[in-house]
Amino acid sequence: MSFKMLSDIVNESNQKQIAFWEVVLNDDCKNEGLSKDESMKRMSDIYLAMKEADLNYDPNALSSSGMTGGDGALLEKHRMQPNRLIGDFLTKVMEKAVKMGESNACMKRIVAAPTAGSCGVIPAVLITYEEERKVSVNKIVEALYVAGGIGEVLAESAEISGAKGGCQAEIGSASGMAAGAIAYLEGGDNETIVHAVALALKNMLGLTCDPVGGLVEVPCVKRNVSGAVNAIISSQMAIAGIRSRIPPDEVIDSMRRIGNLIPECLKETSKEGLAITATALKTVVH
């Protein structure tokens, strides 16, 4: 990856008069030795795998711990109710985020986006967008390049590993990536895209990684819902013209510093937080 800051992508986009996603596509081709068609075919296959994982969700599957499974089906049933508070789009996003997270816990085939623990955020947002807004798969693939470029910057300049940066690095990064992708799909310009990222990331700063029993299940699966919904509302604020008072790249740098400050016991070690509650200790079989 040639870019360490979001501003690098924006500057190249403006200088070459090409879209944000095209900058990322060109960089992928250069780094991987691929033609544009080959790169786009690979990204299309990734999106297809996301859709297959959503389609093949098993409502009866339980994880080996017994802590995870079936909640996606409950949300699907809830979505069919006429008197629910939340509209179709957000309800479907919630449903798909849980389904993907549960599939991961049940050892189904998923796409790490950017990690397995945060695998539900981007698919939930983009698959729902395609279904509800009736856009082409090609447009979704372009949005995946936007998300990919954001993710590369986060991996380079902050962290995407919960073990190193806390859950802000996993769910937070996925939420920022999804926010930028939706801002692009909604017609946002480069400034709108990167500020959607900043707004999403700021809501996730400091999020700990304290999985019960050391498993990527509790609270991880439900956090995918929070990350996905956060991405939507952040993108909409950016589309409305709201801008982060802290520049996007400074937000990412803050995320890096905060991640370094989070104590080890709150970074995927299961030595603090939810992982050592009385219920957690009684529930998990060691």
The shape is: globular
What is the top-level CATH class? Mainly Alpha
Rg measurement, Å: 18 Å
Number of domains: 1
Order of secondary-structure elements: HHHHHHHHHHHHH
Query: In angstroms, what separates the terminal alpha carbons?
Result: 41 Å
Instruction: Label the CATH architecture.
Output: Orthogonal Bundle
Class based on secondary structure composition and strand pairing = mainly alpha
The proportion of strand residues reads under 5%
Task: Describe what you observe in this structure.
The chain is mainly α and 286 residues long. The protein has a single domain (6-283), classed as Orthogonal Bundle (2-methylcitrate dehydratase PrpD), CATH 1.10.4100. 62% of the residues lie in helices and 0% in strands. It has 13 helices and no strands. The model has no long low-confidence stretch (mean pLDDT 97).
Would you kindly provide a brief summary of this structure?
With 286 residues, the protein is mainly α.
Topology:
Blueprint: H1 6-16, H2 20-32, H3 36-55, H4 71-79, H5 88-105, H6 121-133, H7 137-157, H8 162-165, H9 171-185, H10 190-202, H11 220-239, H12 248-261, H13 278-283
Give keywords.
13 helices; 62% helix; mainly alpha; 286 residues; globular
